[in-house]
Amino acid sequence: MAYWLFKSEPDTWSWDQQVAKGAAGEEWTGVRNYQARNNMRAMKLGDLGFFYHSNIGKEVVGIVEVSAECHPDSSTDDPRWECVDIRAVKAVPRPVSLDMAKADPRLADMALVKNTRLSVQPVSEDEWKVVCELAGL
């Protein structure tokens, strides 16, 4: 299993909207960055990810699961862009802010800390455990 982080502006697509999609989940559309797209191409069914509110809040608020592997992004006719589907698994008891991640030396190399602009990013197993610990899981 691999771990990931999915960023979304909560006024565009929020954790509550993701949860409302239930077990069916939702396509993670609109990604127009090759590195982020390639990260989605590497995802497998059942991989887990953090759901991160960017711009407003700047914090991990939930855990999601990849429910469909990479396929054409339905929000464009451009064949270069693909996406995965994700479903909400659970909210975290304590949101983990970007400031908290930056302050924890165990997360110094995390993509979230080093490359804050990347919308879909890998998370190492050790980083996953640290963020889960900070989140009260």
Please explain how this structure is put together.
This protein is of the alpha+beta class. It has one domain: Roll (ph1033 like fold), CATH 3.10.590.10. 25% of the residues lie in helices and 35% in strands. The chain has a six-stranded mixed beta sheet. A hairpin with a 5-residue loop joins strand 3 and strand 4. The radius of gyration is 14 Å and the shape is globular. 34% of the residues are buried. The model has no long low-confidence stretch (mean pLDDT 96).
Shape: globular
Strand element count: 6
Helix content: 10-25%
Low-confidence stretches: none
Structural class: alpha+beta
Report the radius of gyration as a whole number of Å. 14 Å
Oligomerization state of this entry?
single chain
Q: Give the end-to-end Cα distance, rounded to a whole number of Å.
A: 18 Å
CATH superfamily: ph1033 like domains
Strand order, biggest sheet?
Answer: 2-5-4-3-1-6
State the CATH topology: ph1033 like fold
CATH architectural label: Roll
CATH secondary-structure class: Alpha Beta
Q: Give the helix tally.
A: 5
- Strand coverage percent: 35-45%
* Tally of separate domains: 1
Q: Describe the biggest sheet?
A: 6 strands, mixed
* N-to-C order of helices and strands: EHEHEEEHHEH
Instruction: Give average pLDDT, whole number.
Output: 96
Throw out a few tags for this protein.
137 residues; alpha+beta; ph1033 like fold; six-stranded mixed β-sheet
Short précis:
This protein has five helices and six strands; from the N terminus they run βαβαβββααβα. The protein has helices at residues 15-20, 34-41, 98-103, 111-114, 125-134, and strands at 3-8, 26-27, 48-53, 59-72, 82-97, 120-123. A six-stranded mixed beta sheet has the order 2-5-4-3-1-6.
